[in-house]
Amino acid sequence: MAEMSEHLFNPHLMAWRRDRPSDTPNSGEIEEVDAVRNIVWQTRGEEPSAFERDLADTLINVFGSGVTSLPEVVAGLDAAGLRQQNGARWTQESFRACMARLAR
Q1: Phi and psi dihedrals of 67, rounded to 5?
Q2: Tens-digit pLDDT profile for residues 42-100
Q3: What are the CA-CA distances from residue 91 to residues 35, 72, 77, 88, 95 (Å)?
Q4: How far apart are alpha carbons 103 and 97 in whole angstroms?
């Protein structure tokens, strides 16, 4: 199973040293190239959860249907029957918050 998991996320990534990237130019931190094994197409630190996989699949379908606005995305998620992790229906605010949380 370890072999398969390695393709879903990169366990070799260094942890962020700060809560968020710096807004100041040239003050970021870059890994030393030879100090960590990076898998080029994987930048996640853990395997996506079932919720994250379901959300991604549903968003692919929603955007594939031609949706372009946030209200349409939220309506599409609800129409598809996908609820938030707490079981509630989506709102624009909850979708934004979810995207912000997942982007960290």
Answers
A1: -65, 140
A2: 566 677 899 999 999 999 999 999 999 999 999 999 999 999 999 999 999 999 999 99
A3: 43, 11, 10, 9, 6
A4: 10
Give the pLDDT score at 60.
Answer: 94
Contact between 10 and 39 (Cβ < 8 Å): yes
Q: Could you write out the DSSP letters of every residue in 65-91?
A: TT--SHHHHHHHHHHTT---TTSPPP-
Within the chain, strands assigned E span none
Tokens for 9, please give them: 């996320």
Structure tokens at 31: 């890994």
Say whether pTM exceeds 0.70: no
Query: Which amino acid, 17?
Result: R
